[in-house]
Write a structure and sequence with these properties.
425 residues, mainly beta, Porin, 16-stranded antiparallel sheet, two-stranded antiparallel sheet, 4 helices
Length: 425
């Protein structure tokens, strides 16, 4: 019985020691080391940035030097890739005014320079987007690229292009591939532009001065255009003129995701007037219509995409449309199974249809069919003469965007591979 107090004392000391009451700190458990995340390399960072739909549109590109941002682009069909340097200063000094300028020089010697000043349409703080190619639907192409930008924008713009290897096969639906020539197009465009968006409708008005000139092409594989064609067979070849132009355009945007649509419609309409500043040889009115529809087949995994385009130039009595301004197809815009600017004339009608199948959240497969024709007048248009191509495509995508696409199109003349960033339509 006398040992009982000693047992209690010993037990109390042991408990006190384990609880920290004995004057000694308890032994802390060894901490688990925090894993150090692996640092991503340049290529991984670039891929993640491109494939990330959650990137803040108000954030500037991570690859820039102050106001300068480098890019790589293809300016026009046949130009080849080009390094492009942009100068971009949105909301300059808190003034609400924006300054943008860019310069590009491609591997085939194509040059493009432009500048805008004022309230320029753009998303967040991202670079403004403009059409550069000779197959673009001028002036509707620019409005399509900025139709989702809210607010009202007023700015002035200047552009200089020097495209030394432009293809010309002749005017009309019966031009022959064997008659391929090349010429050098230089032009300058100075404009004032106003654009606004009301709900789903974007409106644009623009007026400007266009100064084109035609020179000898630099592609030694083909004869120069002036050696094969004359002023009668290629209007404007030897007597280029300056033009004033007035344009009005509207774009109705009802697609769920304009850069990767699964459902909805869009409709663009533009009317332009071109007047010869020195005479009345080249005066004409242009009407452009671009309609697109997207129909899901049961789910967004299966989508049928449709496009119809009318590009109609109507010269005044006694006037002509210069060949270098005529609607054309072939290359990366319409009927991509034909070479760039393969067919051209005053009128162009084209349709495209794609069945798009999502194979994976980031991969899309497409079956493609395209058809179109050019003619001097609508009376001469003949459905039995339609040019056609068909093919398949693979697209890299996110939920909101088509990042890049590789399409293979076959026509009666050739099989052509078309690689481009962004959606086909």
């Amino acid at each position: 019985m006398r040992r009982f107090p000693f047992v209690l004392v010993a037990l109390w000391v042991a408990l006190a020691s384990s609880s920290g009451f004995a004057g000694e700190d308890p032994i802390a458990p060894t901490p688990t080391p925090t894993p150090v995340p692996e640092r991503e390399g340049f290529i991984k960072r670039a891929i993640h940035a491109v494939m990330n739909d959650e990137v803040d549109p108000n954030a500037r590109s991570a690859y820039r030097w102050g106001p300068f941002e480098p890019r790589a682009e293809i300016m026009s069909s046949g130009a080849g890739p080009a390094p492009v340097l942009h100068l971009w200063a949105p909301d300059l000094g808190g003034s609400g005014l924006d300054v943008h300028a860019s310069g590009a020089y491609s591997i085939y010697g194509y040059q493009y320079y432009d500048a805008q000043f004022g309230r320029v349409p753009y998303v967040g703080r991202r670079l403004p987007r403009t059409g550069k190619g000779t197959t673009d639907l001028f002036p509707l192409a620019d409005l399509e690229k900025t139709a989702s930008v809210p607010g009202t924008h007023v700015y002035v713009s200047a552009r200089h292009r020097d495209y030394p290897r432009e293809d010309f096969y002749g005017v009309g639906p019966y031009s022959q591939a064997a008659n391929r020539t090349d010429y050098r197009l230089r032009d300058e465009l100075f404009e004032g532009v106003m654009q606004t968006r009301v709900s789903h409708l974007s409106l644009m008005a623009r007026a400007g001065l266009m100064r084109p000139s035609i020179h000898s092409g630099t592609d030694s594989a083909f004869p120069d255009t002036s050696e094969t064609y004359t002023e009668q067979t290629a209007p404007g070849l030897t007597s280029t003129s300056d033009f004033t132009h007035l344009s009005a355009a509207a774009w109705l945007e009802l697609r769920d995701q304009p850069t990767n649509p699964q459902r909805g419609v869009s409709l663009g309409i533009a009317v332009s007037r071109f007047d010869d500043r020195h005479a009345s040889a080249y005066q004409f009115t242009r009407v452009v219509v671009d309609a697109r529809e997207y129909v899901p087949l049961g789910s967004n995994r299966h989508v049928v995409a449709l496009r119809q385009v009318a590009f109609l130039d109507t010269p005044d009595a006694g006037s002509l449309v210069p060949f270098y301004l005529q609607p054309n197809f072939g290359g990366s815009t319409f009927l991509r199974g034909f070479g760039a600017t393969r067919y051209r004339d005053n009128k162009l009608l084209a349709v495209a249809a794609e069945y798009r199948l999502a194979l994976h959240k980031n991969i899309q497969f497409a079956l493609i069919y395209e058809a179109g024709e050019v003619s001097p007048t609508m009376h001469d248009f003949n459905l039995n003469r339609l040019k056609q191509d068909y093919g398949v495509g693979i697209r890299l995508k996110t939920v909101k965007r088509i990042v890049a696409r590789l399409d293979v199109l076959h026509s009666s003349e050739r099989t052509r591979v078309d690689f481009k960033l962004g959606p086909s339509f």
